């Protein structure tokens, strides 16, 4: 049983190198698929709707180049450097967008996909059908002699054999074709999943864990380094901020992308209700105050600083908990979590408009009961217990300061610029101090190192050399996080409520009970209206009689 629980976080080959190969490949090909579609604009989950947000070629190209620069420079896969540089060169030289896949599939299936597959399969030699319990049906033909299909299975097989696959919707759990997840395979498998837009590249079960692993491993690689060259670190962190800004506009799950851009990254400032919004109900306070009180994507990204090598890793920890707090599996209270002790218990009361604690389910990792058996691979429970013990004092202090009045004041500041009171400003200052204490305690636990550290030491000299060599970025416009447009009002009719708000709907605000004075006012108004009506009838009768006589 413990093995089954462990498998949620531990694939067949748990090495950081293998997981990074899979993660970067899945992310890049998933975004490529969105970019290859026609039309490629989305209003949340509705494709082609007027006013939608685009998956643009220029952003995809920029994101890919910056991601590859970091992946190569941080030496996640030194053996694959030649192939990775070939993929970077391909994208850098392809300035104009290729035709959509349905119009002309050649570039996507014959150029891009084989180059990407080669770039992320170093270390793989060959395999045969008999090496596996199963291989997906669409790859089986000539598998033993087709090196390309073997590489594809190397990149997708772990997912199709995982518990994550079995968390897909009920009617999709027994669909195992690789072409449902790796785009542009129609030519190689005889299928039509790409051309008929049936891909599952945006499924959180498929891509969610890969993206978070990529984020955490990237942050931890920098945190673990012994590099001290400040100019080099400035360059490295600047590229990290640019890459993240590109990613914000390109998440391959359209709903997830919009949730991040319109809610998470801006503290839900565009909500219409000062109580029924995600900043009030779900996000941990350390996310709301990430980068200060500004509450914007630019403000949050500014917390990633070259003066602190842990800052990228901490940014992803806080962001991951914020996203988890406001998505379906994250905001759901597990039974043991409802019964857990304060401050780790999950408060479940969907009718309570003044929650006991804000948020209902914040800073999930690593202290909630769902992580009890998966923090370590050797079934040692002490890391979970140590985490709760070491963080308890800080979390209780933060919880005692965090309150509804403060959150509403902050939200009104983000929403319309309403001034924050002196009392709330003092609470923010106090919270900032306590959050820093909690963050330092979390770092001392070593949980991120235990799960995401690469076993190959990073060469600072090679890092400096690579960053210097990877300077060419022809026709790539650096994104400005302050200029990411708000979703057009034309999309409003397509937007849906979040899964968490559906689970925890606030009751409708009751109409105010009439007071004695208001009742008397209503009676007086009614009498006045009746007199006016009678007077009108009398005048009308007099006029009518004048015509008769």
TrEMBL record:
Coiled-coil residue spans: none
Cofactor(s) named in the record: FAD
Enzyme Commission number(s): 1.8.3.2
This protein's UniProt keywords: Disulfide bond, FAD, Flavoprotein, Oxidoreductase
GO molecular function (one): thiol oxidase activity
Enzyme kind, highest EC tier: oxidoreductase
Substrates-to-products reaction catalysed: 2 R'C(R)SH + O2 = R'C(R)S-S(R)CR' + H2O2
Domain ERV/ALR sulfhydryl oxidase residue range list: 197-344
Keyword Disulfide bond tagged: yes
UniProt key word Transport: no
Protein name as catalogued: Sulfhydryl oxidase
Species in which this protein is naturally found: Tieghemostelium lacteum
